[in-house]
Amino acid sequence: MPLYDYRCLNCQQKIAVRLSYAEYDTARPKCPLCGSDRLQRAIGRVRIAKSDDTRMESLADPSSFGDLDENDPRSMAKFMRKMGSEMGEDLGPEFGEVVDRLESGEAPESIEQSMPDMGGSPAGGPDGDL
Ligand SMILES: [Zn+2]
Predict the structure, then answer these.
(1) What pTM does this model have?
(2) Span from the CA of 83 to the centroid of ligand 1 (angstroms)
């Protein structure tokens, strides 16, 4: 089963939840650290940077994303926009920035490096989140 990245909106920690696709659609996972169910799906670096078959399991209908070329940043941007609208959730400013930069042709690796928040360590510290 694929791992999904979430960010806990209560304790601000990044966590990974293992869910089948069917569960992903309906499950209300709780934060293992504080028990909150205020989890926001995160677009993790793994699924941006790596080619991984399990990544595709998160898609309801692969044919609707059939033109994804993960070696082409613009194709990835289009894919991510579509994925975002399918989820119907606010994926946050990070997501939008990543998509914009992919669309401009920037390599995913260089986007990651310039966005420390996607690398697992909080940029602003516990009190930097105003
Ligand atoms: Zn939490």
Answers:
(1) 0.36
(2) 25
